[in-house]
Sequence to fold (681 residues):
Amino acid sequence: MLLEAGYTLKAHQLNYMTATPTVKSAYAVDNRGYYGEFGGAFIPEMLHPNIEELRNVYLEISQEAGFQKEFQGLLKDYVGRPTPLYYAKRLSKHYKTNIYLKREDLNHTGAHKVNNTIGQILLAKRLGKKRIIAETGAGQHGVATATVCALMGMPCIVYMGAIDIKRQAPNVSRMKMLGAEVRPALSGSQTLKDATNEAIRDWINNPADTHYIIGSAIGPHPYPDMVTRFQSVISEEIKWQLKEQTGKENPDALIACIGGGSNAAGTFYHYLDELDVRLIAVEAAGLGINSGESAATSVLGTKGIIHGCRTLLMQTKDGQIVEPYSISAGLDYPGIGPMHAHLIDTGRAEAVSITDDDALKAAYFLTRTEGIIPALESAHAFAALDYIKYKEDDVIVINLSGRGDKDLSTFIEHIEKYG
Amino acid sequence: MNRLDNLFATKKKDILNVYFTAGHPNLNDTEDIILTLEAAGVDLIELGMPYSDPMADGPTIQDSSTVALKNGMNVELLFEQVKSVREKTQIPLIMMGYFNQVMQFGEERFFRKCAEVGVDGLILPDLPVYVFEEKYKALFEALGLRISFLISPQTSEERIRQIDDLAKGFIYMVSSSSITGAKSGISDEQMAYFNRINEMQLKNPRLIGFGISDHATYSTACQFSSGAIIGSAFIRTLDKATDLKAAIKGFVDMVREPEKVA
Ligand SMILES: Cc1ncc(COP(=O)(O)O)c(C=O)c1O
Fold:
């Protein structure tokens, strides 16, 4: 069955080379940059010219034939796409249903993040930008950005919270080897939200020559939509791969973890209007929703503004942003992308919150049943299987957003308990 | 009459606007700082509402905000402090903060409270101009509140005109492409920008801020506008002060009349 899928790839790739991922949907962004009441661009005037420039050109540039050719070419030959859609037989048997894994972990650099950084660096080049900045939490987006900068010969500065630099040493080394400068964010809580603040400040100070590659479906419009479109290659592939392997048009459910929401946005995108497809967004509950150490934004968050967009975020009643917690550095962002806020608010998507404990358990379980070590972020998506209802003949696709190499030391610390 | 309108009607040059973060260095310094600044001859005061994630600000203002929040400052308390100081002074007061703080308080409730306690105007750097126009302009007019928008060297002429049509009070001219407190000294490029804007003959008076820190930068800013805004340099002075009042007086003199200090 897998071989057959392999043989028919070529025909689909033709289609996939020319396809422009455009969905006309009540759930996609409107022409003012909003998803319902979420989104927008709440930015200081100093950023206005940059954001306005992007807003005016991002669709035109990214849909232009030359851009698509280069983008699709790099996704195929450099990143290694399409990533497989893999029927996880033993996992399916255990859960008594049909589970397919979308193998974003097999991308170059080990996660979905690179789909977006390839798209954005090509855009930056066409805008004549000479310098790239990025923020990173776990370091995956930082590595993906440093990688495309090396590929294009562009200088790269990655802001990373001083605390995360200590927690994620291997990725810091990777970025350095790739030639990026890793700048510690020393302000505030010294984690991802502060790294994002520092990147925004850098952009304010260097508006003309610099492009800011945001790593998730967050930030001011057009970022959430732009990142979502670059990531939508995930759902575009799932569509034809699933048809080929099962004959079914649509899965019954899609499951993805959600930090800022880029891998989930990419997984959901082509199914936004297929209302019979359940969209399940899995966030990190940390030590538990009511423990005070959590990142379950859909439950603990309220409407407000973070990093230039109106969305759900964790904050005090005075609007001070609260530092979230999760064992997974890629999920401890205090907000979620505005598209997800809208999907959850309208009931289109279901949110599930998964604790550190459940995520570790799920990571070991996947590893021992399928021989795949997932990223801690992705492990949250797998743990959701224990909390959602489904039927035996359902087809469930889980986005395996990244591989677990970067998390090995955490996994090994807990091997006694979960191994 | 709105105190800001009054100020700009009677004073056209050399206006000095000083920013400080409310609640820093100590929770209850607000009144002393305001009254001492006024006595030292400052024309207009900007009260910073401390915020956890002030993305347009540099390390000095962020650090002072962190201190203020630790001290227990919040919007509710700041309104009380302003109400009480209003009984002692008629100096124009502006509140500056981030829009999320206003949203959480409730926008309409926040703006009404400003008017009620005697705040004259607001600066909300991340409130988009069009959102203000569509949702709050009428309320500001009804309440007699003023709003200032920022412009930077990158702002297009067309947009500056739009902002000038919409702003009431003054236009906050960001001196360079920067966050607060970033650069010192004023370059030829900045002079060219100051000149360019000067020649646009805007309706609103302009104050130049960001990177203004001493007599030299203040004087240059004043040549090209109605005056200047100082924030980070003043906060650094407060941080070092042993005698708060003497330090404030010394700072204002240093900016305005350095010969007197020397
Ligand atoms: C493997 C992996 N999955 C998921 C995420 C979460 O980000 P997002 O919600 O944008 O997909 C990260 C972030 O670092 C990641 O590295």
Summary: The longest strand of chain B covers residues 15-21. DSSP finds 13 helices and nine strands in chain B.
